[in-house]
């Protein structure tokens, strides 16, 4: 490749990185918050009521206000709420995140919880939240601020005899299973004392407002942080079916296997007549996705603890992909969005998207294929340093190497700034990636097989590093081509 071609590829890297970072910047939590809610001394006004719960809430009618913030964006969400809500009388709360905010409020207890695996603070935060919520009565208003990552950051086994070490092992097995996130979270919901609606059940009489920043498909909002405040429509039969499907029974810690096999193992709260189990549908998600208002389904069939609950979707991967689409168009690219490989195996997703990419780029001089969502990785051995985005990018690099003279690049990165067990958000690949990696002494095929893509991309300078973003709107993939 000539120096001019190398410069053109570097420019393409810059374009891809800019689209990713600017799209993320456009998804501003504070602005999204202000589009959904407005506060004065008496009321919380819902600016885009979607049919869930009352249109407005008279905040002055409540003696106490509790806040439970959990997930990777818990700190920013909590700070925005406290800034907008002037009332402080009777205010108490819990914040569980992997990064503690620099600005803290003495009325809030903060916990530096673990991700992607729970730690002692994950357990402590859940215990503290349950203790707080059990004090709630009819005169209590509760704000639940829920973002992605809460499944690990906020956890407590339903069986008090299960230890943290066993819980960590359980989560490691789930993450390595190759199961999509909604199926993983079905097991988590039935395992946990604070998931699958049980957090809402801890304060049955209180008025509850759940403000959501989902890292899951909008059709499965109850998978966000394993649905702590939403009714669960999966069943123990689903759980046992998943354990069999992914051959988990013999791998589970003995105490957890015994828990799921108990005849008196409790069902999670929720109307179990809703089907299909793995795709519970929430009409307010349709309203968010289509940007027009529809009326939400009645909660009359649910436990009283869920009735009149308010659900506000602040931002989602829909906003991330639309921001990226606008930026790519403004940069002069013909844009196609294809999210159909969400929750696919990374290798299958790479083959599918690359096939579409190569087809479209022959028709357009400047082309950008955008895909949002998450891919899965089934770990067949102890992994090296990497994550699903770097694994996807390396698989794409092996394909792009077939086109050494062409200006092509693929970026795959997580909106939270963290990919797997690394400090990278993801990586960028182009037709020179494999040759450059080999020049540095790396074997790309071996790195892929060992789930060890991070050292390779770091060595050649093609890691995407943002640091923690305070977001978690799923992963963004950009496949960009420039012809002559």
Protein model, in words:
This protein has helices spanning 3-26, 29-36, 74-84, 120-133, 150-153, 164-176, 181-191, 198-201, 236-245, 254-261, 283-290, 317-330, 346-361, 388-400, 433-439, 444-449, 453-459, and strands spanning 37-39, 43-46, 56-58, 64-70, 91-97, 108-112, 140-147, 207-213, 310-313, 334-337, 366-373, 407-414, 426-429, 463-464, 475-482. Mean pLDDT is 89; it is low at 276-298. Strand 10, helix 13 (346-361) and strand 11 (366-373) form a beta-alpha-beta unit. Strands 6-5-4-7-8-9 form a 6-stranded parallel β-sheet, sandwiched between helices. The chain is α/β, with parallel strands linked by helices. Helix 1 (3-26) crosses helix 12 (317-330).
Furnish the topology, listing elements before pairings.
Layout: H1 3-26, H2 29-36, E1 37-39, E2 43-46, E3 56-58, E4 64-70, H3 74-84, E5 91-97, E6 108-112, H4 120-133, E7 140-147, H5 150-153, H6 164-176, H7 181-191, H8 198-201, E8 207-213, H9 236-245, H10 254-261, H11 283-290, E9 310-313, H12 317-330, E10 334-337, H13 346-361, E11 366-373, H14 388-400, E12 407-414, E13 426-429, H15 433-439, H16 444-449, H17 453-459, E14 463-464, E15 475-482
Parallel strand pairs: 4-5, 4-7, 5-6, 7-8, 8-9, 10-11
Antiparallel strand pairs: 1-2, 2-3, 11-15, 12-13, 12-15, 13-14
Helix content: 25-40%
Helix segment tally: 17
- Tell me the major beta sheet: 6 strands, parallel
Radius of gyration (CA) equals 23 Å
In total, how many domains does the architecture comprise?
Answer: 2
As residue ranges, the low-confidence spans are 276-298
Question: β content, as a range?
Answer: 15-25%
The gross shape turns out to be globular
